[in-house]
Amino acid sequence: MAAATFLLPITSSAAAASSSSSSSWRTPVRCSAERQVLFSRIAPVYDGLNDVLSLGQHRVWKRMSVAWSGAKKGDRVLDLCCGSGDLAFLLSNCVGLHGQVGALDFSSDQLSIASTRQDLYWKACYENIKWMEGDALDLPFPSSSFDAITMGYGLRNLVDKKKAMQEIFRVLKPGSRASILDFNKSTSWMTTMIQVWMIDNAVVPVASTYGLSNEYRYLKDSINEFLTGKELEKLARSVGFSNAKHYEIGGGLMGNLVVTR
Ligand SMILES: C[S@@+](CC[C@H](N)C(=O)[O-])C[C@H]1O[C@@H](n2cnc3c(N)ncnc32)[C@H](O)[C@@H]1O
């Protein structure tokens, strides 16, 4: 199916994006303004910093997360908070030429980089990706639209996590899965200490060489204010998911929630 026919009907901003070329994501989204500014500011260095700060491991965690989503050939899938598109590109490989990938973010700067990467690393199946500017808390899709959903390092940054889970539940088809990768808010003091040490002594100093120390200091608070694996499972069940399992990965520093509608 042509990418231009991806998931209609949708709201006006996403409709504009889906009815023309991949460069038409410009309708601004008004929500969580501060975070929107933050992610736009870090967009130019985001990919490079991820590689440096995780020693390339984020690529492994993202592959695991996509595998957990259960996406397969021909599926219609969605990557939320897609940023520069790492998970969307992986999903695109999974669903192939006859599948469709919707990739949504509220930062036009991140989407611009994603679109550039789509051209740069051209692959036939990448034509199935549609970049959309939109709010993960108010998804511009009809109910029961997707065979699988991924979200990498997005949930922690959303101001209303329950609403986000409700939206994922709504747009997933019954029986389908969402796979949500993020930092793990560990219940182990040792893991928490290592995480805090790494942020203070590696992440922030490296980010400061790009003039982004304040932006990356936000990481520690956002993990602190996030939910533990058990709390995420409980939240998922409370919004209706029939199954919810949180896996600790990366030595407990990261976590991946897998939920089934
Ligand atoms: C840490 S980045 C993760 C990017 C990508 N998923 C990855 O794993 O590399 C978080 C992304 O979430 C996006 N985001 C945050 N809140 C959002 C919202 N309410 N709606 C849509 N996107 C949002 C930001 O713009 C940013 O691109």
TrEMBL record:
Residues 1-16 form the signal peptide. One of its GO terms (molecular function) is 2-phytyl-1,4-naphthoquinone methyltransferase activity. Its main location: plastid. Its EC number is 2.1.1.329. One of its GO terms (cellular component) is chloroplast. Pfam families: Ubie_methyltran. It is found in: Plastid, Chloroplast. One of its GO terms (biological process) is phylloquinone biosynthetic process. The keyword Transit peptide does not apply. Keywords: Chloroplast, Methyltransferase, Plastid, S-adenosyl-L-methionine, Signal, Transferase. It catalyses: demethylphylloquinol + S-adenosyl-L-methionine = phylloquinol + S-adenosyl-L-homocysteine + H(+). Involved in the biosynthesis of phylloquinone (vitamin K1). Methyltransferase required for the conversion of 2-phytyl-1,4-beta-naphthoquinol to phylloquinol. NCBIfam families: MenG_MenH_UbiE, PRK00216.1-5. Belongs to the class I-like SAM-binding methyltransferase superfamily. MenG/UbiE family. This is 2-phytyl-1,4-beta-naphthoquinone methyltransferase, chloroplastic.
